[in-house]
Amino acid sequence: TLAVRRWLKHNDMPFPCCAPRSADEWREVEDQLASGLPPETARLMARLREAGIDRVVALWAMAEAVGSRQYDELGREARRSGRPEIFDIERLFDQADTAILPAAFEVSAGGFGPSHQTVIDYYHRHHDPEGAMPFAEAAGFCFGCAASPKFIRNHTLYEHMYGNRVADSAPFYLPVADAYRELFRFVSDAVFEQDDPIPPAVRPPAEPEACFDLAFAGWCRGFLATQPVVAPGWESHLSGHPDLHAEYLETIATLSFFAGRDQARAILRERGNGDDLAEAARRMHAGLADAIRRLFRLAHPIMEREDGTD
Q1: Which residues fall within 8 angstroms of residue 33, CB to CB, at 6 or more apart?
Q2: S-S: 215 plus which of 42, 119, 199, 202, CB 3.0-4.6 Å?
């Protein structure tokens, strides 16, 4: 195991496999491949390699299997039934999921990138289409929570994004909880550094009316979904400041305008200004970046220095 850990560190493996337990699982898979026992391990490696999966990715996925609850349950089932043939690691891998393994491997490395969107959207489509948010909506939800004046507990955040059921509904080789956590970290860091908190894949297109039909609309829907969660914090924060509260409502309208055409028309009716949708879309589109900054400053007022400057 120590030799495996040294090799992993020397080769800068991009996942947390240098811990003793993970290195031991890696070593166990290599031992099984070298000895040919059980033969199912070699068959699975061959199947993954034939599907175009790099050996290091296949080894990572198989080591994840060896360390999983499902693997332990499979062993117990084989012992209870007296049928050792059912203790087959291949049973833990759904062939339909093979194509997601490279993205899952990248997500397990930490950081943030396109693979996180791939894993989140894959999980949403194939494992929890009713309860989990797709990437664009999750990004908007993360922004609304990160920009809130009141800290939103992780349990609440993840309950809304994927129902906290990910351990039961996702295979062990799909690190979807990690993907959602890294998405929130990316958005939250951008909010507090006052960078663009909208991931590149869902940023609003140049044509305002196209925002209703593309990924940015999902971001707006996710942002809008935060309102029941963050409203008590905002009400408390702005209590006694009606002008700031009115500015807050205006900002919310701007940031949620493109959630859908019906949502946009409702905002226009509420304002009673008679703008047509195209003209309102152009104005809202032009004010998005400013609205993001305004929301941050409303939640986190700039303190006045002793010399009277901001």
Answers
A1: 41, 42, 45
A2: 202
Neighbours of 303 (CB within 10 A): 6
Instruction: Quickly count helices (H) and strands (E) in the chain.
Output: 17, 0
Distance CA 55, CA 67 (A): 18
CB 105 within 8 A of CB 61: yes
Q: Tell me which DSSP letter residue 308 carries.
A: S
27-81, pLDDT tens digit by residue? 888 898 999 888 888 999 999 999 999 998 998 899 888 888 887 887 787 677 7
Q: 199: burial class by Cβ within 10 Å (0-12, 13-18, 19+)?
A: buried
CA 288 to chain centre: 23
Phi-psi region of 198 (alpha: psi -120 to 50; beta: other; left: phi over 0): beta
Structure tokens at 178: 């990690």
Q: Name the token pair of 1.
A: 């195991």
- Judge if the upstream peptide bond of residue 38 is cis by omega within 30 degrees of 0: yes
Q: Give yes or no for a contact between 54 and 98, defined as CB atoms under 8 angstroms apart.
A: no
- CA 205 to CA 219: how far, in whole Å? 12
Give percent helix, percent strand, percent coil of the chain, each to the nearest 5: 70, 0, 30
